[in-house]
Design a protein that fits this description.
Helix content of chain A: 25-40%
Strand order of the largest sheet of chain A: 3-2-1-4-8
Oligomer: homodimer
Distance between the termini of chain A: 14 Å
Number of strands of chain A: 13
CATH superfamily of the largest domain in chain A: ATPase, nucleotide binding domain
Shape of chain A: globular
Largest interface: A-B, 35 and 35 residues
Order of helices and strands of chain A: EEEHEEEEHEHEEEHHHHHEHEH
Number of domains of chain A: 2
CATH architecture of the largest domain in chain A: 2-Layer Sandwich
Strand content of chain A: 15-25%
Number of helices of chain A: 10
Radius of gyration of chain A: 20 Å
Largest sheet of chain A: 5 strands, mixed
Chain lengths: 310, 310
């Protein structure tokens, strides 16, 4: 049997694991990522965690063929370099080469969103799909596209303008998909609705919850607030607009929605499907629209699956 | 040597030719497409034109390995069927199978824009590019994406909404890339400027030319009309917006611009590059932005090149 190491670098924790060729996790280990530490110290921690996960897996180390690393930030996948990661204070971190040297097996670096997308295709919500688009609705909007179980590199569709001259985005453009469809976008829309009616149900729910989160508007809608329902409807209109753009262009078999907002499940997906169907170009086959199922494990599994050909 | 037949189905003429493996046309033949005729009659015409081009090429028919067909309309590439082409009155035309039977070689059907994109990559403006996006600014906006000299199927980015709730598009959505960046979009913007100022230079140029075309606004701008320059600038802003979306998402090495509007050459491309650079996500390598060079031959060459693996 062949096994692969997956490493998922998160802002708080680094997760590693031994994964089989079908995407099953055999064993896992986790260490704090620890921002702003010397890169060689970070490397030692990752290697240590990998060795722990190998030891606890019971797998013969000779059967471990390669290590895949999923990292956020600006990535040079061809050369295995994290060019820049502001959150972690990393710069020109030749993590691919160094991991390969330390473990004595080939290493490959991927963007973390791409790795997570591959994980969902091999072992999660889009299992068996010839092509799948994985959209993560978190602080930003992440997009990953996978064809024939291969990552389509560098799919940065969060910064696709859908509303020319619209909401300012962190990237400097106006009207990006991310500015509307991220959790941040929804929170902004919720705050604006509260400002318009500071005594309504929505405002009250926010007060009780202590702050406005991506969940607030759904909680208010559950209480029968028509204003909250209107915010959700507007949010879904923009989300459907961006998704339809990508369905028209990429024609995926499956669209998987992940991230915090996706926790709303069918409450989100059922009306979203109706709106997407209305927007997609006639003659294009509608994809299945589902929730991601692997959660944090998607990145770990996907990073490992990205080196299956090694 | 191996040779391939390319067939490019246009609204007016069908062009066929014998093409070598490097994308050089050895011989060509053309017949009127003739809309609304029985499909078997059309087929006979295509087969006749192919045979004419083979005869005039001097190539040994045994060296001709396959036929590639580029067609507009709704296409089932997997099964070689033109599902629907309203302009030609075609419906469920099993052109792939029938061409293969008639010529005794394998046949493959492609979307005509995709075929033209492949032509530009193999033998035209994007020659040697690992990945290229070909955008055609005509009646609509066509998009084709080619990676490693393979067509990325079904890239319908003309119907990507860039201005939520904006100009109505023929597809039923509002604010599509095509509604702004096609020749039709530019003509609409020109007409609106003329309505705003019916006695200006732009209105006068349109009067002299007899109608408003995609060229009118450029002709008026050449005469120093600031109003025309403003329309061009606005047109380029939208075009840059859509292109930046696609560069962010697909990260092509080369972007080739074709179609009627592209005839403006550097007058269009020089300011476009500046606007695109401003819009592209930081950290993404800027592609070369060039004009298509093969003209009508792109579709013929590309259709032939799509069957090189046969």
């Amino acid at each position: 049997m062949s096994y692969y190491i997956g490493v998922d670098i998160g802002g708080t924790n680094l997760k590693t694991g031994v994964v089989d060729a079908k995407g099953n996790i055999i064993s896992e280990a986790s260490v704090p990522t620890g921002a702003d530490r010397p890169q060689d110290v970070v490397l030692q921690d990752i290697v240590g965690a990998v060795k722990t996960s190998i030891a606890s897996s019971g797998v013969d180390p000779k059967e471990i063929k390669a290590v895949g690393i999923g990292s956020p930030g600006a990535i040079d996948t061809a050369n295995g370099i994290v060019i820049r990661n502001y959150n972690l204070g990393w710069k020109d971190f030749h993590i691919g080469e160094k991991m390969s040297e330390a473990l004595g097996i080939p290493a490959k670096l991927e963007n973390d969103a791409d790795a997570a997308a591959l994980g969902e295709v091999v072992a999660g919500s889009a299992k068996g799909a010839k092509s799948a688009l994985i959209i993560t609705l978190g602080t930003g909007v992440g997009s990953g596209f996978v064809i024939n179980e291969k990552i389509f590199p560098g799919c940065e569709f969060g910064h696709m303008v859908i509303a020319y001259g619209g909401r300012e985005c962190t990237c400097g453009r106006k009207g990006c998909f991310e500015a509307y469809s991220s959790a941040t976008g929804l929170i902004n829309m919720t705050k604006e609705a509260i400002e318009r009616n500071p005594d309504g149900i929505l405002a009250n729910v926010a007060k009780v919850e202590g702050s406005v989160s991506g969940r607030t508007v759904f909680d208010a809608s559950d209480k029968g607030d028509p204003e909250a329902a209107k915010v959700i409807d507007e949010y879904l209109e923009y989300l459907a607009c961006g998704l339809a753009n990508l369905i028209n262009g990429l024609q995926p078999e499956v669209v998987s929605i992940g991230g915090g907002i996706a926790k709303q499940g069918e409450m989100l997906l059922a009306p979203l499907r109706v709106k997407v169907e209305r927007e997609v170009f006639k003659g294009i086959k509608l994809p299945k629209i589902v929730s991601c199922t692997l959660g944090y494990k998607a990145g770990l599994i996907g990073a490992a699956m990205a080196v299956r050909d090694f």
